[in-house]
Design a protein that fits this description.
39% of the residues lie in helices and 19% in strands. With 259 residues, it is of the alpha/beta class. The protein is globular, with a radius of gyration of 18 Å.
Length: 259
């Protein structure tokens, strides 16, 4: 399999964002709303888990969802490839029901069939080997356990617009940067059908699909009127499962069960 991007670049990128990452959830714009509603929808998908259940938060960042999981009475394992993220976790969370590891998502140091649920928020789109990671999730889950898998939605209108405007601006950006690539890391965007096929091919049964972040403020309007478009997105979140309107969402969550 060809390499999507060097994973050390991903590690370095998120190490550099560890101190500020948590603050993004408080932003009063569409970006902050996207982070918040994604976490909310993932937590809603775990409401049927019993107190004392084991949850692995893979790609946990600086423990962005760990406190909420602990508050529900779960035992939590958080993992991340970025060491500084795990340092932040250990600083923020001292509850003995939580433990943290620096490791890649496809090689988690936990025994087989020990987790009732796995959360993977904002993770899969950065990885080189998604099938290996899904296989690892399948290994970790108990029979009947669920995996919460989040994906950027390729066909959301705002992402289509962003790709179009970026294509138009590419010659200008090339001149400004003098041919050099911009900073940061790449991430994939996903169509729903092929994504569900990949998940079922890994052995999972798809239980639910939930779209989120109904972004109608296209660039640059979303930066000119951030709160207005954030409130519009909040009002439209009720359509997260509506067959047609849900496709406006910039991301979707797949709830996948291990048979």
């Amino acid at each position: 399999m060809s390499e999507f991007q060097p994973q050390q670049s991903v590690t370095g990128h998120f190490d550099g964002k560890a101190r500020e990452y948590f603050d993004w959830y408080a932003l009063q714009n569409l970006e902050g709303h996207s982070f918040r509603i994604r976490k909310t929808r993932c937590m809603e998908a775990l409401t049927k888990l019993q107190v004392g259940s084991s949850v692995a938060d893979i790609g946990c960042g600086p423990a962005t969802m760990v406190k909420e999981l602990l508050d529900k009475g779960f035992n939590v394992v958080g993992t991340d490839i970025a060491p500084t993220m795990i340092e932040e976790c250990k600083t923020r969370i001292t509850d003995p029901r939580a433990s943290f590891y620096v490791c890649p998502a496809d090689n988690v140091p936990l025994p087989d069939a020990t987790q009732d649920a796995i959360s993977a928020m904002g993770l899969l789109e950065y990885l080189n080997d998604e099938p290996a990671t899904l296989k690892e999730f399948y290994r970790l889950l108990k029979p009947g356990g669920i995996a919460l898998l989040t994906y950027p939605h390729y066909w959301s209108p705002s992402r289509v617009w962003n790709r179009f405007t970026h294509l138009l601006a590419r010659p200008i950006l090339f001149v400004i940067r003098k041919g050099k690539k911009g900073p940061g890391v790449k991430h994939r965007e996903y169509s729903l059908g092929p994504t569900l096929e990949m998940i079922t091919h890994a052995g999972f049964k798809v239980d639910d699909v939930i779209f989120y972040n109904f972004k109608l403020g296209f660039r640059p309007l979303d930066t000119w009127f951030p709160k207005m478009f954030m409130h519009i997105a909040e009002a439209l979140e009720r359509f997260c499962r509506t067959p047609i309107l849900r496709r406006i969402g910039t991301g979707f969550i797949v709830v996948a069960k291990k048979p």
